[in-house]
Amino acid sequence: MKKKILIPTDFSKNAWNALTYASDLFEHVECVFYVLNAYDAKPYSIGDLMVPEPGSPSYESAKDQAVNGLAKIMDMLDFRETNHKHTYEFIAELNDPLTAMKNFIEQRDIELVVMGTKGASNSRGSLFGSNTIMAMEKLRACPVMGVPLDARVAYVKEIVLPTSYKTYYKRRELTHLVEIARLHDATISVIHVNTTEVLTEKQEKSKTLLEECLEGATYSFHHVHGIDVTAGVRDFTESRDSDMLAIINRKHAFFGSVFTTPMVKELGMFTRVPLLVMHDI
């Protein structure tokens, strides 16, 4: 069965890089990549309906832009080396990006969303665009990977997984992480950042369960103390030149809601290291 991957696009360099990154990451896996553009049709004049319909100038203009943009992506893919394991489908939909993605994930049983960390605006001083943050927070039916513009797949040798060991893991939550690690023979480096090295009985049980969930992949455990979580994860990842960061976005847990805390803003490594956001089930 082919792996189903959704690639939202706004026709920016960031979105194109996410598409090529995903293609290279799953080079040896049979995949269907669904390239989705959610477009907005704003009224051109008072005569246009507030909700544009087929045939109205604003609707037809927005649709044409979307179709032409997807056609350019098809042409760009033709210049890449053909991978017979990969097929592409292109979809243009009148909707807001989050709703379009939610609907498509449900309708096509999407397994993974891969998107650029920024959109066409590529605003400075912001590591994540608003659509990416919303996707990582709200699309809980499947994992979301944010790919920075500078990220490239040469080979993935290490994926960092921060943990507090304060919640119990489920194997199906970590399926995609284990798959990527096995595909690239990469090590999953589990890092625990805390003021003390001693784990409670509950944390020890959580660690044991995590080992079971990571079965089939190469993994190692690390502890960093005497430093705050943000600095600990950043320093660990940068010092080892790690290739990916993976988190489970649990509410009321290690990061809380990671995207509403200063952590994302402070982790400069996101300018080059993809972030795989998984969700508790």
TrEMBL record:
It holds the Pfam family Usp. Belongs to the universal stress protein A family. PANTHER family: STRESS RESPONSE PROTEIN NHAX, UNIVERSAL STRESS PROTEIN UP12. It comes from Dokdonia genika. This is Universal stress protein. Residues 2-138 form the UspA domain.
